[in-house]
Design goal:
By secondary structure, the chain is of the alpha+beta class. The protein folds into 2 domains: about 1-35 and about 155-230, Gyrase A, domain 2, CATH 3.30.1360.10; about 40-70 and about 80-150, Beta Complex (RNA Polymerase Alpha Subunit, Chain A, domain 2), CATH 2.170.120. The protein has 6 helices and 14 strands. The strands form 5 sheets. The chain has a 4-stranded antiparallel beta sheet. It has a 4-stranded antiparallel beta sheet with strand order 3-10-5-7, with helices on one face. A hairpin with a 2-residue loop joins strand 12 (about 185-190) and strand 13 (about 190-195). Helix 1 (about 20-35) packs across helix 6. The protein starts with a strand and ends in a 13-residue tail after the last helix.
Length: about 280
Amino acid sequence: MKIEILELSDNHVRFILKGSNPAFANALRRIMISEVPTVAIDEIVFLDNTSILYDEILAHRLALVPLKMDPSLLELVRGESDLSKFQIRLILDVEATDGPMIVCSGHLKSEDPKIRPVSDNIPLVKLIKGQKVTLEAFARLGRGKEHAKWSPVSACSYKYLPIIDIDADLCDLCGRCAEYCPHNVLKLEGDKLTIVDPLSCTLCRYCEKVCEREAIHVKGDDTAFIFYVESTGALSPIDIVSEAANILKLKAEDFLSKLKSHLSAPEGEVDEEDRPD
């Protein structure tokens, strides 16, 4: 199994996973979405709120503010089922004294400088002169399968690596496939049809439909996958992918351990908790 990085930035990564299969690729995708832990606001104590928003609406907005976290926490809680032990307090105390103002995520003050809003410019509520919001917010570790606010990704998908075959003997260079390709994957250059950007192919196969001579064939390679992972900012894209791989490894090891225990135990003596799911 090999990985080839195509793009890498602070908030997204695009890579090719080679020598794998659809089951593994989908398991990795699902773990990135729902099982890599992050920190999010979970409980709020309102001390004063004279803004236009009800407490519940403001609490919902605060819970969805992505919080930057220390990646070292991932190692500490790896394999743990209960993540509620880790908790950090954030304070919001804002009053519009001079006139209307917008309360943003940057007004949240964290007791731990490593746990802070990803962006200071996320609007929470607008106050007019004299209005005030004072509250204590308690953030904790959680997983996306519990609530979407704990999911570390805003986008996570994959597609098969495209395989485009052009039969030069059948192709009459009419150029229809290049003309109708929605992503400009093909280009007619002189007396030759070339594949300009195969990775942009979405496997729509529209080029096949418009080719009357059936000179072009497109299929997906079920052993290679193009992944796109976009982070909310809570963790770096590389941390998300690597932690998902670690979690998948732990799940496989746990399954094998329970399976061996089941096979080696005398019939009728297997504990229900040790049975493979």
